[in-house]
Automatic annotation (TrEMBL):
This is beta-fructofuranosidase. Its EC number is 3.2.1.26. It holds the Pfam family Glyco_hydro_32N. Residues 340-479 form the Glycosyl hydrolase family 32 C-terminal domain. The keyword Hydrolase applies.
Length: 491
């Protein structure tokens, strides 16, 4: 093992011991210590789900990336394993960036990731060289391949940037060949996804361009994920520098393209496009296929535009979303918490046919910061808005506001205890025409995840409100009928 990896492992085991379990979310994965961003290498290997993550163990800020590592049998209870990768080779000395994983026929676990090495330009500025590299392991320890990098600038198509070439996503074609989708920046300055193929997972050749942004959705597309779901193929990417347009928000966003894919030509035909999550904090999702054939997606429950929300002295920074099953319905990707999460439900408390009006209402047993809740709101014709107030006490609250005539859901965390002037509200136009709104609200200590109308849309945000703020209340501007079911969780 390299000195750098040994150093990271020694450091993290000591640093993690000083983080109390009560200071972590109950079922959302956080870094063992320090900083986490993208999920990496999300795979099912040797009877367990493996989830790696972009990791700086030494600080709660992004810096030279390592890969952290955790395993789980149910996607909710995670066991930390020692850091898997450190930036210990000449080709990755400035970071082991995002990537993916697959099991090989000899039962080893293959990781493919981006190695970053910076060089100085004549004007003194630094420029990345990003290349794709391999590491092979047993689910705990990984050895970098001696012929790394396996995909470098010599395998780029004409005009593609050597500095923005990252986040390889590996899978197997039906003929057994390995295929890899890599994010790239073509000469128009936007994004494209390149495909590489390999017969053995080690020797790669450039195949084709899977899809090009052509400056439609932001600029560079980061972190591609690509998979078949039913009859369709879904390409998930995280575009940088989005302009707000229709359902898409500004900044670092998420995009799902649904279409068809021809395995012979490598051609992807786009048929539909949508945002993946309309809240403030969801980025770089990756998915895995479960042994029983479901497609489960996990995203970084944070965003580059909002990550400075963490205060100095916080025990950790960054967390993963709840695992979400994705499925295609009416030509769009829907998502809902994985059934493993449903199985945690206990102690149902329900209230039906409640008349809501301008009086703020709360209900016995409906409070807490770790829970699952289903709410149905049926507003009267003249009702203007309905608000659900979460993580509330006399100083703090985070609101979900249903504005009936605009047909929007707003998430507003301005009063969640943040001292930073970041993006604190986000508005989602509700797609389902019905005036009745169904919300599934998943709360963990530091997050709010909302699934609208059976999972047609989702909105996610992180909150760092003191845990004592555990009130939940409801208020209508006008009259509305409310049904609610609240569950505690076996965590
Ligand atoms: C996306 C990203 C990736 C890169 C990683 C670096 O959040 O920018 O493109 O591999 O983070 O940590």
């Amino acid at each position: 093992m390299s000195e750098l990896l040994q150093k990271a492992r020694n450091y993290e085991s000591k640093a993690a011991a000083s983080i109390a379990a009560k200071d972590r979310p109950a079922f959302h994965l956080t870094p063992l210590c320090g900083w986490m961003n993208d999920p990496n290498g999300f795979s099912y290997y040797d009877g367990k789900y493996h989830l790696f993550y972009q990791y700086n163990p030494y600080d709660i800020h992004w810096n030279t990336m390592h890969w952290g590592h955790a395993v789980s049998s149910d996607l909710l209870h995670w066991e930390y394993l020692p850091a898997a990768l450190a930036p210990d080779e000449s080709y990755d000395c400035n970071g082991c960036f995002s990537g993916s994983a697959i099991e090989l026929s000899d039962k080893t676990h293959l990781l493919i990731y981006t190695g970053v090495k910076q060089h100085k330009l004549p004007d003194g500025s630094l420029r990345d060289a990003q290349v794709q590299c391999l590491a092979v392991g047993d689910g705990q320890n990984y050895r970098k391949y001696e012929k790394n990098p396996v995909i470098d600038a010599s395998k780029l198509p004409e005009g593609a940037s050597k500095a923005d070439f990252r986040d390889p996503r590996i899978w197997q074609l039906s003929d057994g060949r390995f295929c890899c989708a890599v994010a790239s920046r073509p000469s128009d300055g936007s994004g494209q996804i390149l495909l590489y193929v390999s017969s053995n997972g080690f020797d790669w050749t450039f195949w084709t361009v899977l899809d090009s942004n052509k400056n439609r959705f932001g600029k560079m597309w980061e972190c591609p994920d690509f998979f078949k779901l039913g009859e369709k193929y879904l390409l998930l990417v995280s575009p940088q520098d989005m302009l707000a347009e229709g359902e898409f928000n500004n900044g670092n966003g998420t995009l799902c393209l649904i279409g068809t894919f021809d395995e012979k030509t490598g051609k992807f035909c786009e048929e539909g496009k949508q945002i993946i999550d309309g809240g403030m904090d969801f980025y770089a999702p990756q998915s895995v296929q479960t042994p029983d054939g479901r497609r489960i997606m996990i995203g970084w429950l944070q965003n580059w535009d909002t990550c400075s929300i963490r205060e100095a002295g916080s025990p950790w920074a960054g967390q993963m979303s709840v695992p979400r099953e994705v499925f295609v319905k009416n030509g769009r990707m829907w998502q809902k918490p994985a059934v493993e999460f449903d199985n945690l439900r206990k102690d149902e408390v329900s209230f039906n046919n409640i008349s809501m009006d301008s009086k703020q209402m709360s209900f016995d047993g409906v409070k807490g910061r770790v829970l699952d809740m289903e709410v149905n709101i049926s507003p009267d014709a003249d009702c203007y808005s309905c608000t659900i107030r979460l993580a509330e006490d006399k100083n703090f609250h985070t609101d979900l506001i249903y504005r009936i005539h605009e047909h929007t859901l707003t998430i507003d965390r301005r009063y969640s205890g943040t001292r930073r002037a970041l993006m604190h509200t986000q508005v989602c136009k509700i797609l389902n025409d019905s005036k009745d709104l169904n919300l599934r609200i998943v709360l963990d200590k530091n997050s709010v995840e909302v699934f609208l109308n059976g999972g047609e849309q989702a909105m996610t945000c992180a909150i760092y409100t003191p845990q004592e703020a555990e009130g939940i209340s409801f208020i209508a501007d006008g009259k509305a009928c409310l049904d609610l079911k609240k569950y505690s969780l076996k965590v």
